[in-house]
Amino acid sequence: MGTKRQEGNFRMRVGEQMTDHTETDPTPYADVETVLCDEFAGVHSATTVTRCVEAAHYGALEVTGYAHPSLVERIARKHLHVLALVASERG
């Protein structure tokens, strides 16, 4: 299960069917990224937000077998809070 990368394309498992997602297509989590970029503006770069959303996506798939956008958003937000805490402790 999971996502298989091949020649710039993504094969995404949705339920029992497979769908193609190319890198030029908008991410299925674009709205999540937008919300989190706005929420963490001045704290994290857009690149960091995107990486956290991607990590949350894969983590959700591994643990629960699905990655609904609301779940991905909650996980990514936790990641971003932890990163902000670590950065503030480093001073």
UniProtKB/TrEMBL annotation:
Residues 1-28 are annotated as: Disordered. Residues 1-24 have a biased composition (Basic and acidic residues). Gene3D superfamilies: Corynebacterium glutamicum thioredoxin-dependent arsenate reductase, N-terminal domain. It comes from the Bacteria. This is Uncharacterized protein.
